[in-house]
Amino acid sequence: MNSKNLSQLVVATLDDMKGQSISCINVSKLTSITDYMVIVTGTSSTHCKALADFVLKSVKDAGQKVNGMEGRLQSEWVLVDLGDVVVHVMVAPMRALYNLEELWNFSTSAEKEAESGNPEF
């Protein structure tokens, strides 16, 4: 399964489990660590734990490898590492605090400005 199909499987699983504000960001041109970042909000730490668990089950059922999971015990921010796809499952306050989408949007904007020869920094 390629990284795009894997990210689509993850997004579908999160949507089925009522994950909120699902974002899937292609970061393949920005980093060599992963191809896609999927960010989702859970309604509570229990919901975040369930979302992460169902992503693991869905990916394993599809015959794909899971590299690891971090943060499951606290469950305010659970990271699921699938290699080419990294999933961030966060409660709303944590997602607002770290604002990962803006971090990657800044990277994309800075890259475009650097290519045009007109950086704003």
TrEMBL record:
A Pfam family: RsfS
Principal subcellular localisation of the protein: cytoplasm
Q: Name one GO molecular function term.
A: ribosomal large subunit binding
Cell division listed as a keyword: no
Record keywords: Cytoplasm, Repressor, Translation regulation
This protein's GO cellular component annotations are: cytoplasm
Q: Is the keyword Repressor assigned to this protein?
A: yes
Q: Where in the cell is it found?
A: Cytoplasm
Q: From which residue to which does any coiled coil extend?
A: none
Q: Which InterPro entries does its entry note?
A: Iojap/RsfS/C7orf30, NT_sf
* BP GO annotations: cytosolic ribosome assembly; negative regulation of ribosome biogenesis; negative regulation of translation
Assembly with partners or alone: Interacts with ribosomal protein uL14 (rplN).
- Function per UniProt: Functions as a ribosomal silencing factor. Interacts with ribosomal protein uL14 (rplN), blocking formation of intersubunit bridge B8. Prevents association of the 30S and 50S ribosomal subunits and the formation of functional ribosomes, thus repressing translation.
Which protein family is named in the record? Answer: Belongs to the Iojap/RsfS family.
Q: What is the protein's name according to its record?
A: Ribosomal silencing factor RsfS
